[in-house]
Design a protein that fits this description.
Blueprint (H helix, E strand, L loop, with lengths): L8 H9 L1 H15 L6 H14 L3 H15 L3 H15 L1 H15 L1
Helix pairs in contact: 1-2, 3-4, 3-5, 4-6, 5-6
Pfam families: CMD (PF02627)
Keywords: Oxidoreductase, Peroxidase
GO molecular function: peroxiredoxin activity
């Protein structure tokens, strides 16, 4: 698991405004990424697929960049994830994700 847990402005604001809530979020994050069954790489691939289906491209960019850097996830692995995204979420999500992957891997 990565040492840097959060990047978003929203969580930084929570930390400033409500430290107890922030610590709860950090603990939840640690518990989720330290699964008993799925390895971290599999979890990150799932996170990439989920991020690919939402409208926030910056979230997907962060997921892919971090996974590429931390876990050396290959372009081929990313493309396998995108095939599932295409099947389950359609062409718009696939194309948006493909643009990001092409920027990061080419």
């Amino acid at each position: 698991m990565s040492e840097k847990v959060f990047y978003g402005k929203g969580v930084r604001k929570i930390k400033k405004e409500d430290l107890e809530l922030y610590e709860s979020i950090v603990n939840l994050d640690k518990n989720i990424w330290n699964s008993n069954v799925l390895d971290y790489k599999t979890q990150k691939l799932i996170a990439i697929a989920i991020s690919a289906t939402n409208s926030e491209a910056s979230s997907l960019l962060k997921q892919i960049s971090k996974s590429k850097k931390e876990l050396n996830i290959s372009r081929d692995e990313m493309m396998d994830v995108l095939k599932v995204v295409l099947l389950t979420s359609g062409m718009i999500s696939y194309n948006k994700s493909l643009d990001i992957i092409n920027k990061l891997y080419d």
